[in-house]
Design a protein that fits this description.
The structure is a single chain. By secondary structure, the protein is an alpha/beta fold. It has one domain: TIM Barrel (Alpha-Beta Barrel), CATH 3.20.20. It has helices at residues 18-27, 40-52, 72-82, 104-121, 133-142, 158-166, 183-191, 221-232, 236-251; strands at residues 2-7, 30-36, 56-60, 87-96, 125-130, 149-151, 170-173, 197-199. Helix 2 links the parallel strand 2 (30-36) and strand 3 (56-60). Helix 8 crosses helix 9. The chain is globular. Keywords: Hydrolase, Metal-binding. It holds the Pfam family TatD_DNase. A divalent metal cation 2 binds at residues 128, 152. A divalent metal cation 1 binds at residues 6, 8, 92, 202. GO terms for molecular function: DNA nuclease activity; hydrolase activity, acting on ester bonds; metal ion binding.
């Protein structure tokens, strides 16, 4: 029983075969998926999906790419969505200095505002961090989330991971963990405490080996879990169970 803690199943790439993707997931014993919002429409879609399928949970929030378009109405609507019983996290939020689709100062401002909104809503945060390690750590240290959070698709070093863990965050691994020569992420996955990690796909992005070049889907989270099992000399079942229990703990849902 594996929980894909970060996916985007409302993406148009699933439009043609959505039910088939879900069937594949069930056959592979992927028992839960968290569908992640990245702007207001996707957050609304996430909540709608979560109500259509009992095994799907939702997160709501605004990705740093979309930070420049936020209005007061955006926050008001997201706070209303956050009251829904199937919403378990606020995200994905954070900083992205790789694409820089919104000015960095605005990204930082919107990130801080969303930490405060997550605190108000009583939700953990789901963090997107791309090439913004220093500024992001500074913000979460100065504006700590009251209900914890997770660094999704972790890409930093072990030295940074130790800081992240000391701040109480969880670390989530996705398809890049399986890529050849990804020594930095492999080191983190080999050392992270077993009670502080998740597995995810970030579907439809970042498919693991051997599916690179194809559309990712929740079924493939097994490859990420299998890589951790290999690194830690554990069974796939042990990794699946541990990551599942970790998610239950952070997101405060029933097993």
């Amino acid at each position: 029983m594996i929980w894909d803690t970060h996916a985007h199943l409302d993406d148009p790439r699933y439009r043609e075969d959505f039910e088939h993707v879900l069937e594949n997931m069930k056959n592979a014993q992927i028992s839960r998926v968290t569908n992640i919002g990245y702007d207001l429409p996707s957050s609304q879609h996430s909540v709608e999906l979560a109500h259509r399928y009992d095994f799907i949970y939702a997160a709501v929030g605004v990705h740093p790419h979309d930070a420049e378009g936020v209005t007061a109405e955006t926050w008001e609507t997201l706070l209303q969505l956050a009251k829904d019983e199937k919403v378990i996290g606020w995200g994905e939020i954070g900083l992205d200095y790789y694409r820089d689709l919104s000015p960095r100062s605005i990204q930082q401002e919107i990130f801080i505002q969303q930490i405060e909104l997550a605190n108000q809503a009583g939700l953990p945060i789901i963090i997107h961090n791309r090439e913004a390690h220093g500024d992001l750590l500074k913000i979460v240290q100065e504006h700590p989330p009251k209900y914890g959070g997770v660094f999704h698709c972790y890409s930093g070093s072990w030295e940074m991971a130790k800081v992240v863990l000391n701040l109480g965050f969880y670390i989530s691994f996705a398809g890049p963990l399986t890529y050849k020569n990804n020594r930095q992420t492999v080191e983190v996955a080999s050392k992270v405490p077993l009670d502080r990690f998740f597995v995810e796909t970030d579907s439809p992005y970042l498919p693991p080996e051997p599916y690179r070049g194809k559309r990712n889907e929740p079924t493939y989270v097994r490859e990420v879990a299998a890589k951790i099992a290999e690194l830690r000399q554990l069974s796939l079942e042990e990794v699946a169970q541990q990551s599942f229990q970790n998610a239950i703990r952070l997101f405060r849902v029933q097993g």
